[in-house]
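Hi W.,

Here's what went into the run:
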Amino acid sequence: MVAAESLIEFRHVSRRFGMQEVLRDVSFSIRRGESVAIIGESGCGKSVTLKLMIALLAPSRGEVLLDGRSHHERSEKELTRERLRFGYVFQQAALFDSMSVEDNVAFGLRQNTDLSESEIAGIVHDRLHEVGLPPSVCKKKPAELSGGMKKRVGLARALAISPEIMLYDEPTTGLDPIMTDVINELIVQARDRRPITSIVVTHDMVTVGRTVDRVIMLYPLPRLAPDEAQIIFDGTPSEIFSAEDQRVYQFVHGQAGERLRELALK
Amino acid sequence: MSATLVTTECEGPVTRIGRAVVDASVAIGELTLFFFQMLGWMLTRLPRRPVLFLCMYQIGVQSLSVVMVTGGFIGMVMAVQSYDQFRFMHLETNLGAVINISLVKELGPVLAATMLAGRVGSSMAAELGTMKITEQIDALSVLGANPLHYLVVPRFLACVLLIPLLTVMADAAGVAGGWLISTQVCGIDSLHYWNHTEDYIGSFELFSGLVKSVFFGAAIAVVSCQRGFHCRAGAEGVGRAATEAFVYSFVAILTVDFFLGIISNGLYPLLVK
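Here's what came out:
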């Protein structure tokens, strides 16, 4: 019964790059319709976790399941099809430099549907309107846009293919507080307007407080003992703000603590 | 860390040679795998026309002037450098045959391929490398496009289809340059110049050069795209990918040229009476 409810499940997943292990024996599951934040310090494996979910990376050990079926049981063609169930907002937007904003947002539709150009243009216009961008940006190239506009085009591109699952990789990093608030609001609206599952990788606690109803915190492996679990918190946003674990508390409240001494800054 | 240092310090020449052989084997294996994966996607379905035509324009049309200019100068340099020696042997009217056969069989294809590797190969590696480190290649996968099919197949087809045309243009410019210097500057009679050329150059010579160029084009596309896809992070990584694309492409061109030369020599008696 529990397995049937799980949309995404990590079973004892480890991932290493060369000699460096980033994830070790990580297990958790995400239910359909949930909004989950994955938080943690830089280098703890948050973005790697997102890429494992969508099969852009394969685990070194363990397995990632989507709808109860492991990614490694699927052929490349099946994985390509399954990836279309996801919308992915990249950390630096990852817009295609050589294409206009319009072509970027239309890319997934042109690639995977038989819609006419006028239908595609309608969807592109709607998605850009949804993220608060005027039609005048359509012909612009990504290089002509500000950081906040790029993020919003990235969000419009992800939403254009009507995904079931939205993955946000540090959606507010590098943005001013106003634009951070705009992006947070768009994440909430995207979730409220359609039945999607949202997974937000972030280290911005304002984003956590506003956009999700569950928080998973990963801890960097170099700072863990060999037998310690890498997930050091799994609960609600209100619980994390009152967590007693010193590592969680320091992260949530932005306190470096003994790190300052380690770095010989005190 | 210390173990690594000890290992490195204790490495003898045999170990280093062994390591170089293993690294080279791995690199060739990765390149071969990349080629066959790309081939698999190419046979599945052809790329979209706008994407293919854009690649053809960037690779073919935009390379035309540089290929023709270098081809023309190579022809002229050959005439200038060879004339004195041929005149010393009273064989100056044979200059046309020597210049033109060298151009058509060897220099034209190799020169066009080298210019393509320098102008297009490095640029492809840098472009794909930048796309990789800015996650644009991941974005393609997420949006349902296979990066090999979307990015590599059109570049491969453009290189393979257009390099014979670029070679023809390099050959023509070289032949014209050689003729110009030989007849208008060195004073060789134009009729004798062309007569000797006709005696030595047939369709086999012409086509062997063009067939070679197709293999060169394939080598440039595969090597350059593979370097771009394996680009490391940062500006240094992109720069290194671009440099490696040119160097490895050039080595591949000369290696392929050597083996095709042997095959061509073997086929000559069978095909030409």
